[in-house]
Amino acid sequence: MIIFLPYGRRLKASKGKTLLDAALDAGVKIQSFCGGRGLCGRCRIVVRSGGENLSPPSEAEKRILSEDELSGGLRLACQAEIVSSGEVLVEVPVESQAYKQRLVAGGLETPVQLKPAVRRLVVEVRRSTLEDAESDVEVLLEALERKIGDRPTVSYEALKRVPYAIREGDWTVTVVLWMDKEIISIEPGRPNEVPYGLAVDVGTTKLAAFLVDLESGKTVATASDMNPQISYGEDVISRISYIMEGEGNLERLHRTVVDGVNVLLREACKAVGIEPSMVYDMTVVGNTAMHHIFLGISPKYVALSPYPAVVRSPVDVKAKDLGVEMNIGAYVHALPVIAGFVGADAVAGILATGIHESDEVSMLIDIGTNTEIVLGSKERLAACSCASGPAFEGAHITHGIRAVEGAIERIWIDPETLEPAYKTIGDVKPRGICGSAIVDAVAEMFKTGIIGVNGSFRSEVEAPRVRCDGGTMEFVVAWKEETSTGKDIVVTQSDVREVQLAKAAIYTGTSILMKRMGIEPLEVEKVFIAGAFGNYIDPESAQIIGMYPEIPLDRVQFVGNTAGSGARMALLSTDVRRLAEDVAKRVRYLELGADPDFQKEFLKATHLPHMELKRFPNVVRFLKGKARSGDKGLKSL
Amino acid sequence: MIIFLPYGRRLKASKGKTLLDAALDAGVKIQSFCGGRGLCGRCRIVVRSGGENLSPPSEAEKRILSEDELSGGLRLACQAEIVSSGEVLVEVPVESQAYKQRLVAGGLETPVQLKPAVRRLVVEVRRSTLEDAESDVEVLLEALERKIGDRPTVSYEALKRVPYAIREGDWTVTVVLWMDKEIISIEPGRPNEVPYGLAVDVGTTKLAAFLVDLESGKTVATASDMNPQISYGEDVISRISYIMEGEGNLERLHRTVVDGVNVLLREACKAVGIEPSMVYDMTVVGNTAMHHIFLGISPKYVALSPYPAVVRSPVDVKAKDLGVEMNIGAYVHALPVIAGFVGADAVAGILATGIHESDEVSMLIDIGTNTEIVLGSKERLAACSCASGPAFEGAHITHGIRAVEGAIERIWIDPETLEPAYKTIGDVKPRGICGSAIVDAVAEMFKTGIIGVNGSFRSEVEAPRVRCDGGTMEFVVAWKEETSTGKDIVVTQSDVREVQLAKAAIYTGTSILMKRMGIEPLEVEKVFIAGAFGNYIDPESAQIIGMYPEIPLDRVQFVGNTAGSGARMALLSTDVRRLAEDVAKRVRYLELGADPDFQKEFLKATHLPHMELKRFPNVVRFLKGKARSGDKGLKSL
User: What percent of chain B has pLDDT over 90?
Assistant: First the structure.
């Protein structure tokens, strides 16, 4: 028997299972970033008794946990395997409990006129007689031809249902048409069932799904979760490497993400009380690798020069071929991609922000594990991509968590006292720091001189919050008395380094893209910062750390999950799908790796805000104004 | 341990298995018509020792086997279940051994110009570069467009292979195109692999398959076997009833026949040393119920007035959706059907015989468990169907067997001595009688006065070969000393009755069809007798018993398996497919059941050759001439 505290859930012990799997079976959600590979150390649990019924600590545990922790009963749930059937009392500490992530559902979205790819039609067919025993399909198509002026094809799945539907419906049936070209479903009579669609954003780290009533156009439910592929690598490149390692790995990753989407599909359907079989259409966006893997296509060559996509044009494929468990006749529409590293999510972002039809020059920065940048106007568009890593999603940060309840989402530091203030999601006790606050923290630490232009903690700063722990400098955001974990929440030197690398990657992308297009920062009339990570990055903080060139802040707008918005727009209208295809063809792709200046630019951009301070005159002026009396760090800028 | 004699095959006993299944496992083929339901009594075996390890005789065995037989160790293999693991010595008598059936592969066939639905094309694609990293699909379609002037779609299965094929083939690939509309397969380089196709005739009783080289048009292998659906009913109606009995029964029958086709597919491929994945196309014909079940479509309403087909137009469906294990991207093309009881096999027969383009009036009689009749010329065509039963395939006949080695295929009876002569397939000792000889036997027995116009044995005939066994009259065709079974081979009164019913059904169909079209027998310039049962029915014997109206014999031609021929023609040419669709629309279907004269006509037709002798003036004249001296039976006609 395994008993989980504080939930009180009980479960019969199954030998060979890890505590992580057992917890899942018991409905207890434990955090895990690395997918149970003993790498991230997020699934710490305390074994209160019965430790002898578990496997001894693994190498991974010995690496991640201290001897004191191990002797105190601390284990990694993913490593501790049940070896005998005795009782084990497991406590899941609050910082290891997985919470539902907050999702930015409402990304900026350009309104579209409803014209979905599927529609239902009630059809009355003539009865066949002994004198004229015409086939069921023939009488159905005859009637449809009278209604829509054309004869669609009949999908194999619908074909098999035709004779039953016609007779159970007493010669009245309701068909669901796809693109007016194919009957994908047939039901007897006039069931009062609206067809639904699901717009899906397959992020490297996160999945988001939007369930839409296709007759009203309304989003009736949203669902989101981690991309379960994360077990096989945190970023695009490591997943592609995994695929290249073995024969069945592509199929495994494909199944994993499709299963994840199926979970969201069921969850969204459950929320509004419908069956997944009532979902007749799906649009999918994602970066090219995610897009390809979702479709079961190998992204192997996407990772090899010249980084071509396997397919750029939109792909329509039967849901059942992919294993998506919606209506059996339904199609999945994958939006087009621009290049190997600028995917359908960027196309969706363009559609959502309307960059492609604007007279003004706009820039879209879609921040994720991979960040895509699009720059241009209706005249011309170019895009590039940069590997910014998952820091802004809370990974690789000491106390980083996703945007869940208890996550610190804003941080301010008093320039005189160096005492911080913060705000948590849900206004509860903090349990960690999410992406937006990590950007804030670095910006504020820089503004207040705690760290210097190179990102290092400045030795001359002395304050109760600044300390050295085991040789590493850190800033205490919240004392353990204030937190729900009973531990201090800190930002360490290495956390600052992660942010520097991430922001440098993004800055380099924006600056090279602008240089190649001959566009100066001040010519950019609009900057859209997008991301599906659930928290609003403060444009000022982002500019202070130098995430993008200096552009007046009133031109910068956080627009949320535009990938999801674009997917939803394409779900609502086939005109948008055509537009997406057109836009994807128009965008010129720039390969950053091919740019001779890349390395140099990247290195310079790791500084705060940048090694060439003249690129950030206003930030410098602002910082000088903010500088604490007596502190020479900022004054000397 | 189960030991099978005379094969000497040994097999570990599995409790709960029947001896029939055990034999199959041991590679010992035992005859079974009813599919192991204890109905046909064909799977008799002798238990030499170890009977205590088997279940006691079932009710079915007690019904079919005499007490003497049971006490002598005779059992039905399908009923005797293994109950313990002791040794059982089983002898399979020669008449229970299943032989490979002779197949009429070479049906009449109108030559067609080769224009298959699939073709392969070698395509050289341009390499993508860092400056222009176009997608794999785009460079492929560009190259194809230059070659064929159009851009086909890419099947999902092919899409997944595109990146590998392009690179493994060093930017040269071979694609297989379906209808020039879809890339269904892609291979690297220029493999020297011809695409093959399989033409399949799904008969109620038999399956026949023809493997065709689609570049030469040559049939390279044929394969045939029983339709394994026979376990679920011998005729169309009993299978439809089975489907109506339970939810999963349609799926079960569908899987069963598809599995049967897969066996033939593998067998044909093995014969020429190719992989089933090299088979890229399949055409299928069958009566409407077989056609529907093969496609997984319920034929339920085909059996209910007004007997409509679910679909009449040709159906193209992915092989993988059906479970056909050829190339994963391949399509199966099911030819169109004419009506609920005149199927794609009749359409194929029309194409093969060319009735639809002839100036002369022709009649096609395609004899099977269900017999289809088509009458007309290029001006007009009509068709009907009749349930003639499986007698001509050797079923329901005391010593009836299929056209396998050792089957008597011709019988003659000396009018003076009443001594028979016969010919067996393979010129070996006889083991039973197949369909053609059954027709001969009845015709000869009638000609020689052994039976009268009503089909009854005539009491006044005395001869060593004519005897009464257990109250039933019978004619001994072969004495046990001559046979390989060690038993007399006879034709009984009930065998004659079976033939009378079968031929009456066919005659009624032909005569009502002619009446409804206003065509007299002498206006019919050509009679094509078709069938897939492996033996050539003698047109004279068939006319003597009155299987069809009296038409000069030089106009009658046995044309073999025209269903298979038509399927092969459609495999060779998409023009033929279009023609088939056109022909299927043109043929008027006549529902015999709706004809007021049906019952009366049928009853009159059960006589030999017919109750109204004036319909057969030449037969009567011929018979009178043949009559034995002193016998008043025929003289009195």
Answer: 70
Q: For residues B11 and B25, is the Cβ–Cβ distance under 8 A?
A: yes
Span B446-458, pLDDT tens digits: 999 999 999 999 9
Distance CA A486, CA A406 (A): 13
Asked if B311 lies within 8 A of A159 by C-beta distance, the reply is yes
Compute CA distances B169 → A303, A361, A433, B123, whole Å: 19, 44, 51, 10
Q: Which residues, numbered 297 to 316 in chain B, qualify as contacts with chain A under a Cβ-Cβ cut-off of 8 Å?
A: 297-298, 300-301, 305-313, 315
ipTM above 0.85, yes or no: no
Where are the domains positioned within chain B?
2-96, 118-188, 198-344
**Interchain contact, B308 vs A156, CB within 8 Å:** no
Instruction: Please check whether the two domains, B2-96 and B198-344, share a CATH topology.
Output: no
Q: CB A133 to CB B339 under 8 A?
A: yes
| Residue A111 preceded by cis peptide, ω within 30 | no
CA distance A93 to A101: 18
Residue type at position A279: V
Phi–psi pair at B592, nearest 5 degrees: -60, -40
A161 min Cα distance to partner chain B (Å): 8
A494, two tokens: 């290495």
pLDDT tens, A24-68?
A: 777 777 877 666 777 778 788 999 899 999 999 999 898 888 888
Q: Is B41 left (phi over 0), alpha (psi -120 to 50) or beta?
A: left
The tens digit of pLDDT for each residue in B35-57 reads 677 777 878 899 989 999 999 99
pLDDT band at A631 (very low <50, low <70, confident <90, very high): low
pLDDT tens per residue across span B262-281: 999 999 999 999 999 999 99
Q: Which CATH architecture has domain A199-341?
A: 2-Layer Sandwich (3.30)
Residue B209's DSSP bridge partners are: B200, B223
Interchain pair A159, B340: CB under 8 A = no
Chain B residues whose CB is inside 8 A of the A243 CB are none
Residue B481 per-residue DSSP state: T
Residues found in chain B = 637
Euclidean distance between CA atoms A21 and B138, whole angstroms: 44
Phi, psi for residue A362 in degrees, rounded to 5: -125, 160
B198-344: CATH topology is Nucleotidyltransferase; domain 5 (3.30.420)
pTM of the model: 0.83
Does A591 reach chain B within 8 Å, measured CB to CB? Answer: yes
Per-residue pLDDT tens digits for A504-551:
999 999 999 999 999 999 999 999 999 866 568 888 999 999 999 999
The CATH class for the domain spanning A2-96 reads: alpha beta
Q: What are the E-state strand segments in A370-416?
A: 371-376, 381-386, 407-413
Is the confidence at residue A192, as pLDDT, over 80?
Answer: yes
How many angstroms separate the Cα of A414 from the Cα of each of A449, A458, A478, A480, A620?
11, 17, 14, 20, 19
Which residues of chain B make contact with A315, given a CB cutoff of 8 A? Answer: 159
* Cβ pair A553, A540 in contact under 8 A: yes
What CATH number does domain A118-188 carry, 3.20.20.150, 3.10.20.880, 3.30.70.260, 3.10.310.10? 3.10.20.880
Is residue B205 within 8 Å of residue B186, measured between CB atoms?
A: no
| Minimal C-alpha gap between A476 and chain B (Å) | 47
Tokens coding B306: 């007004």
